[in-house]
Amino acid sequence: MNSTRHFASDNNAPVHPAIFDALAAANVGHVRAYGDDPVTHAMEAGFREHFGPLARAHCVFGGTGANVLGLQALARPHEAVMCAEGAHIDVDECGAPEHYTGCKLISIATNDGKITPELVASHIHGVGDQHHVQPRVVSITQSSEVGSVYEPREIRSLAEFAHARSMYLHMDGARIANAAAALDVPLRAITTDVGVDVLSFGGTKNGLMGAEAVVFFNPAIGNEFKFLRKQGMQLASKMRFVAAQLARVLEGDLWKANASRANAMARRLGDGVSTIDGVKLAYPVCANGVFAILPKEWIAPLQERSFFYVWDEQRSVVRWMCSFDTTSDDVDGLIAACKSMSQRK
């Protein structure tokens, strides 16, 4: 097993040791399956503690499943979901949202990965016209695919816009922990308190082993979710082992400690490479991702040293993701490698 840490994705990081401890603690005796167990009940209580008494959390084991089922609970097949161009639901889920919900995704071009009420409004057409899909959901990603972070006021503005038009606000929170840590706010400050209707809560990118949740803040919306989850093949029989991970990451703010470490390493990396001749940051470093424009000839040698992905081949933008286990030595090594490439010119 190669133990080298790299910058390809926070999905590639190992499982946090505290999560393994939680799994071991849950691995005792027999309990009822499919979520009717003390561990799952404790997980549900943990979500209410962080997100408010009306929050209803449902375990799933995949981020795509969380997004698809969350959207399916909100929209019917003749309706549309508005999202940013490049959103994970639009380009990285193999068409699953449209295939399983029947909805049309309408992508909106942005400069920084974030959509605004004005941008959404410009794409709403044919309301009430039977020949057009009807707008029903605004979906945002927190933090966004290019690492930008929605501030609470921006989310509230989108929620108010959506609700005034009988639409819903969905949040793909695959990296919600990184966003909340970057803003130094509680999780509810960018969800419950600002009008989000449904959240896909991400755990896998923050030290968990295949554990996500769909969280409803208006219980009436999620009344039938248990049937959608079963039909959508996201109902775990031994759910206590998914729930134990989610309960533990919320306990003692492990979610924030993990995310803060990843964010800090990204800032260190961004600060370090931004002063190197030949490197330019494509976007500000807000969370745990660094997007940099490099000379094309640098990319392959740097990937051999520490693998990462090319984000935009035309613009020569690469993405370096930091994780909860990224170290300052990892970061400083990549910075030094970039400096070495610069000095070869």
Short note summarizing the structure:
With 345 residues, the protein is α/β, with parallel strands linked by helices. 39% of the residues lie in helices and 16% in strands. The strands form two sheets. It has a seven-stranded mixed beta sheet, sandwiched between helices. The protein has a four-stranded antiparallel beta sheet with strand order 8-9-11-10.
Strand content: 15-25%
Element order: H for helix, E for strand: HHEHEHHEHEHEHEEHHHEEHEEH
First-last Cα distance: 36 Å
Strand order of the largest sheet: 1-7-6-5-4-2-3
Mean pLDDT: 96
Task: Label this structure with key terms.
four-stranded antiparallel beta sheet, seven-stranded mixed beta sheet, 345 residues, 2 domains, alpha/beta, Aspartate Aminotransferase, domain 1, Aspartate Aminotransferase, domain 2, single chain, 13 helices
Structure description:
The protein folds into two domains: about 15-255, Aspartate Aminotransferase, domain 2, CATH 3.40.640.10; about 255-345, Aspartate Aminotransferase, domain 1. The chain has helices at about 15-25, 40-50, 65-70, 90, 95-100, 115-120, 150-165, 175-185, 225-230, 240-250, 255-275, 295-305, 330-345; strands spanning about 55-60, 80-85, 105-110, 135-140, 170-175, 200, 210-215, 280, 290-295, 310, 315-320. The protein contains 13 helices and eleven strands. The chain has a seven-stranded mixed β-sheet, with helices on both faces. A four-stranded antiparallel β-sheet has the order 8-9-11-10. The protein is an alpha/beta fold and about 350 residues long.
